[in-house]
Amino acid sequence: MNTERRRQLSSAEERRETVLRTAIGAFAARGYFGTTTTEVAKAAGISQSYVYRLFPNKEALFTAVVEHCFSRVRASLEEGAAQSRGSAPEAVLYAMGDTYARLIADKDLLLVLTHAQAAAVSEAAVREAVRTGYARMVEYVRGASGAAENEIQRFFATGMLCHLLVSLDVQDVDAPWSRTLSAGVRHY
């Protein structure tokens, strides 16, 4: 019985991960407001009622997706810090910025984070998930880099600029405004 119970729990956890991965694509395509749990269930190959067994409502599903995306961002920052070619704050920030720029080349992740910021304006639970995600990232970047507050702020500001550059495919635009915005900013 104990082994059977563990197998069921494992299966439910695996199903939860499958739903999260599937939901990333669904929410990336249509955002929080435009995506239904029915669409997520269909894409995951499960019933809508099973989605509700895993997540009590769409808000809980979306916030879990947002948390999952922030975990991926954190992992990329950790990878960058580990790959840094030096321990100076500038070197660590540069390495973390590079791995992050590579990560957001995954348009689904970028779209979910962008949709989350938009939904945070009116949805308290989403706002809290985004706040928590950024709070954890800022604290990680502070600890891993040892950078000053203004350097950390610039790091995140540049990250937001990267979101814009990737969203607009600025590398395909040869115009003064695009050169101004993208000068010195890495994006893939």
TrEMBL record:
Domain spans labelled HTH tetR-type: 13-73
Pfam annotation, one family: TetR_N
Family matches, as Gene3D superfamilies: Homeodomain-like, Tetracycline Repressor, domain 2
Keyword presence, Lipid metabolism: no
SUPFAM superfamilies, per database record: Homeodomain-like
Keywords: DNA-binding
Residue ranges: DNA binding: 36-55
InterPro entries for this protein: Homeodomain-like_sf, HTH-type_TetR-like_transc_reg, HTH_TetR
UniProt keyword Nucleus, yes or no: no
Protein name: TetR/AcrR family transcriptional regulator
Native organism: Streptomyces goshikiensis
Lineage start: Bacteria, Bacillati, Actinomycetota, Actinomycetes, Kitasatosporales
